[in-house]
Amino acid sequence: MKVLANDGISKSGILALEKGGFEVITTKVAQEQVANFVNENNVSVVLVRSATKVRKDIIDACPGLKIIGRGGVGMDNIDVDYAKSKGIHVINTPASSSESVAELVFAHLFSGVRFLHDSNRNMPLEGDTNFEGLKKAYANGIELRGKTLGVVGIGRIGQATAKIALGLGMKVIAADMFIPQVDVKVEFFDGQSITTSIVSQSLESLFKEADFITLHVPAQDGYIIGEAALAIMKDGVGIVNCARGGVIDEVALVKALDSGKVLFAGLDVFENEPTPEMTILMNHKISMTPHIGAATGEAQDRIGTELASQIISILG
């Protein structure tokens, strides 16, 4: 049987699938050509990340499709319920990228509190002519230790983020409609560990209490952070979104950054991908990455092998 990994798959994933008797195709097929390619090549499994969309039109056009797989957590680029109604298995890898995304959250947090995203732009331009001026501009850094991190969505990635925060000596609070309480185990290199319990609180109280806020929620119908939410946050709050574009009102965010209400933002995802708004791209108070939360070698290896094991167990 043939597997089309249209958005790529790790070498370890390919090897595992080939060992299970599958032929893996890694040709990048244009969105509008996916259905034709699947049918012409008798593809049984389509694997995607976030670029390729598998909607009703592709599902209807490909009667031989047996599995649709998403390398990652969110499946908003797949018509999941419709696929299942047609007898197609839909799989994903919810646990594989948690640590990678959590580390990126803290890359943005560290960047924001020490202005690295801005100093890395300006040092090459002015470092030799305005060293003292830049030193003064970036002198008011903030320590994360002792501050309160508000985690919106305390699922797998939220918990992985909480573990790093606890290791840094931060207070962690959380808001989650579906998880009232969770025990977070922080493990150390020598086998020792500590476990602490985090009780979910209201979103409103989290916004009021947190020094920094990180979002770990699926795509929403509306904004989680808009003008009203920003208004009740602490002055000088830092906000990070490595979850999904569209959960923050970017117009309201830019306004809050310009006014100083929000000290900085870290964005890995955007309302308009892959063409973020210029007002976001040019804002010197925003640390930006191009949707790379799960893009580490370790995460991609885990994603590839986990997808392979699920496919083999279903079709093997």
Describe this structure in words.
InterPro entries: D-2-hydroxyacid_DH, D-isomer_2_OHA_DH_cat_dom, D-isomer_DH_NAD-bd, NAD(P)-bd_dom_sf. Residues 8-314 form the D-isomer specific 2-hydroxyacid dehydrogenase catalytic domain. It holds the Pfam family 2-Hacid_dh_C. The protein is of the alpha/beta class. Helix content is 38%, strand content 20%. It contains 13 helices and 13 strands. It has helices at residues 11-19, 34-40, 56-61, 80-85, 98-113, 116-126, 131-137, 156-167, 203-209, 227-232, 250-259, 278-281, 297-315; strands spanning 2-5, 23-25, 43-48, 67-70, 89-92, 148-152, 171-175, 181-187, 193-199, 212-215, 237-241, 262-267, 286-288. A 6-stranded parallel beta sheet has the order 7-6-10-11-12-13, with helices on both faces. Strands 2-1-3-4-5 form a 5-stranded parallel beta sheet, sandwiched between helices. Strands 8-9 form a two-stranded antiparallel sheet.
Distance between the termini: 10 Å
Low-confidence stretches: none
**Total strand segments:** 13
Structural class, judged by helices and strands?
Answer: alpha/beta
Tell me the strand order in the biggest sheet: 7-6-10-11-12-13
Task: State the helix count.
Answer: 13
Helix-strand string: EHEHEHEHEHHHEHEEEHEHEHEHEH
The main pleated sheet reads as: 6 strands, parallel
Average pLDDT, rounded to a whole number, is 97
Multimeric status of the protein: single chain
Overview features:
D-isomer_DH_NAD-bd, 13 helices, 6-stranded parallel sheet, 20% strand, 316 residues, alpha/beta, 38% helix
